[in-house]
Structure formats: C-alpha cells, structure tokens
Amino acid sequence: MVMVGTDRAEVERALVSGELSCPSCQGVLAPWGHARSRSSRGPDGTIRHRPRRARCGACRGTHVLLAQRWLWRRADAVSVIGAALEAKAAGAGHRSIAAVLDLPATTVRGWLRRFAARAEQVRAHFTRLLLALDPLAGPVIPRASIVADALEAIGRAAAAAVLRLSPTPAWELAGRATGGRLLAPPARDRW
Ligand SMILES: [Zn+2]
Q1: Ligand 1 center to 60 CA (angstroms)
Q2: Distance, CA 55 to ligand 1 centroid (Å)?
Q3: What is the secondary structure of 67-111 as a DSSP string?
C-alpha cells in the first residue's frame, strides 16, 4: 500500500509520469488497474470509491494507492477517527463519543483501545517527525495521559508540516506519516 494525496487527478498524473516509488524497493510505479470498490464513511456520509493500483517496474510487486483521508483496513475517514481520539483525550468515554459520531460503540472502543496500545509509539514517531521538520521545535510538554501526549505530538508535527511542506489537515498527516497504519496492530516495524 502506498499513501497518496486526496486529489485523484494529481495522483493519476504523478502515477502516469512515474513520480511514485515502490515502498518495497523504491522502483518506479506504473498504473496497474484498480483495487476492489469499497464503501467508506467520511465526515459527510458514506463514499463509494475504488483505489488505484500500481505495479513496480523493478520488483513487480503491486500496491494499492490509498488516499490519505483513509486508513488501512478502516471503513472510516481518519478525520472521523481522529475526532474520536481527541474526544477521548478530553475525557469522554467510548459510548458518548460513539453517540456523537453516530457510530457503533464497539467500533469506537476498538479505535480507542488500539490507539492507546500504540500511543507511546505514536508519540515517539511524531516527536521525531516534528524535530525533522523543525529542528528548533521546543519539547512536547507531557499532558494528562499518554493518549493526550500522542495527540499533542501529532498536532505539533502537523503544524510544523503545514509551515514546512503544505497545508494538510492534521489527521491526514497522521495517517500518511504512518503509511495508513495509524491503527494497525502493534508491530515490530516503526513506520
Ligand atoms: Zn518494487
């Protein structure tokens, strides 16, 4: 899987122009049909979309191009998931968050648990990213919980990315900077 921007025309142009590289070997990716069509929930309702696929000219591996508004194997937009995580850091419980977002409580509980299990890894990853983007950045001040610390690090890194790179919504940056695997099972890989 390769995370790409949300502008489909721009992604297509970059793909056809050979500007996208293989995550396995850095070879050049070329168009290779589409992945299966899927339904995902954005902030404004369900969206049906069909991600592009690409094939590496060097290792022949195929990869799905996932727009950065989505996460790997999650049906909801990263902005929706991020809103739930922010509510949790502010003290809300999973049932009330689910009610506000009009989602099943089990879905929200799953996000919160997974994020909590990775929160220290998230905090460390985005603190490193913050310092890479802004070597003069001040320290990330510890908050009330490790989840709040992780969100603080994401927010700081996202703000630095806006200044240094381009205006990108914070949660899309969070998804993209973790290869879409912000809520993937804890793994030995460090993104
Ligand atoms: Zn490759």
Answers
A1: 6
A2: 8
A3: ETTS-TT-SB-HHHHHHHHHHHHTT--HHHHHHHHT--HHHHHHH
Q: How confident is the model over 90-113, as pLDDT tens digits?
A: 999 999 999 999 999 999 999 999
Q: Both ends of the chain: CA-CA distance in Å?
A: 13
pLDDT tens for 115-147 read 999 999 999 999 999 999 999 999 888 888 999
Per-residue pLDDT for 189 more than 70?
A: no
Q: State which residues have CB under 5 angstroms from ligand 1, the bound ion.
A: 22, 24-25, 27, 56, 58-59, 61
Q: How far is the CA of 95 from the centre of ligand 1 (A)?
A: 43
Distance 86 CA to ligand 1 centre (A): 37
Q: What H or E segment, with its residue span, contains residue 53?
A: strand 52-56
Order the strands of the 2-4 sheet from edge to edge. Answer: 2-4, 62-67, 52-56, 29-34
Burial class (CB in 10 A: 0-12, 13-18, 19+), 174: buried
Distance 4 CA to ligand 1 centre (A): 17
> Do β-strands 2-4 and 62-67 pair in parallel, antiparallel, or remain unpaired?
parallel
Cα of 58 vs centre of ligand 1, distance in Å, is 5
